[in-house]
Design a protein that fits this description.
By secondary structure, the protein is an alpha/beta fold. Helix content is about 30%, strand content about 20%. It starts with a strand and ends in a 5-residue tail after the last strand.
Amino acid sequence: MTGKMIFFDIDGTLLNHDKKILLSTKEAIQALKEKGHEVAIATGRAPFMFEDLYGEVARLLPRMDCVLSLQ
């Protein structure tokens, strides 16, 4: 099987309502990586808006992308 590129949003996906990453989320991301998938963040947030989370998120997702939407 060829690995896939999988993107996650931050709010409500990686982070719960308390802005924490659950252990089950960390385990699921690790399982995806072990199966050969690349995992990254796709968010409308500017990088400075999640600097406080970067340390923990970077350990899980060292590859981070910022997707901006202009409306």
